[in-house]
Amino acid sequence: MPRKTLTLVATAAIAATTAASALATPAHHDRDRDRDGKDAPVTRLDLTPSSPELARCMPNARVKITVRSTTEQVGFDTFRVRARHLAPNRDYTVFLLETAGQPFGAAEYIGDITTDRRGNAYNEFRLIVDEAFASTIVDGKRVRVDLNQVGMWFADPADDDFCLGPNSPVTPFDGDDEAGVQAFNSANTRPLPAP
């Protein structure tokens, strides 16, 4: 076989092997190297608007969550939020949740993102994600729930008025106990890994 043909066959074989291995690896969970060169599991989620009204008002909105699971190596996981084309110039609160949509169940406030004039934002939080849970005592028994869903709220009650009008609900999902409605959640994707 001529050398040129052999090179083309080898290149095609490598491309086919690469494509097959990409198809075999779930998009939801892959691996990344940590600072010491060790593999760290990576989970990716896409959040979607929490209601049809919000989806119509922000038709190009994209919220991507990436979690690097490094608690065993460094004592925390890295939770990244990258948002595009949200309502601009607004703060959004980010929570780990028991249930993505109402009634939400247990919730942990983990941070904020702030969109620029184009509606884009990025932030990175260091916290325990893969083993996040809430615990309480009910009728003398300990009750534990995993927090493996994600939700984001408009931090200011007036920030959702552009879509829902001035009489939209006020919710408690901000540090001052007054927020707008839930804007995005992970209801349409697989949950974060549970312990």
Q: How does this structure look, described?
A:
- There is one protein chain.
- A hairpin with a 5-residue loop joins strand 1 (29-33) and strand 2.
- This protein has four helices and eleven strands; from the N terminus they run H-E-E-H-E-H-E-E-E-E-E-E-E-H-E.
- Strands 1, 2, 3, 4, 5, 6, 7, 10 and 11 form a nine-stranded antiparallel beta sheet that branches. Strands 8-9 form a two-stranded antiparallel ribbon.
- Mean pLDDT is 83; it is low at 1-32.
- It has one domain (28-185): Immunoglobulin-like (Sandwich).
- It has 195 residues and is an alpha+beta fold.
- The longest helix has 22 residues, at 3-24.
Notable traits:
195 residues; alpha+beta; Immunoglobulin-like; two-stranded antiparallel sheet; 4 helices
Short summary of the structure?
With 195 residues, the protein is of the alpha+beta class. The protein has helices at residues 3-24, 52-57, 71-74, 161-164, and strands spanning 29-33, 39-49, 62-68, 77-84, 91-97, 107-114, 121-127, 133-138, 141-146, 149-154, 182-185. The protein has a single domain (28-185), classed as Sandwich (Immunoglobulin-like).
Task: Write the SSE topology.
Blueprint: H1 3-24, E1 29-33, E2 39-49, H2 52-57, E3 62-68, H3 71-74, E4 77-84, E5 91-97, E6 107-114, E7 121-127, E8 133-138, E9 141-146, E10 149-154, H4 161-164, E11 182-185
Antiparallel strand pairs: 1-2, 2-3, 2-11, 3-4, 4-7, 5-6, 5-10, 8-9, 10-11
Low-confidence stretches: 1-32
User: How far apart are the termini?
Assistant: 55 Å
Enumerate how many helices there are, as a single number.
Answer: 4
Q: Would you tell me the structural class of the helices and strands?
A: alpha+beta
Major beta sheet, specifics?
9 strands, antiparallel
Shape: globular
CATH architecture: Sandwich
Work out the count of structural domains: 1
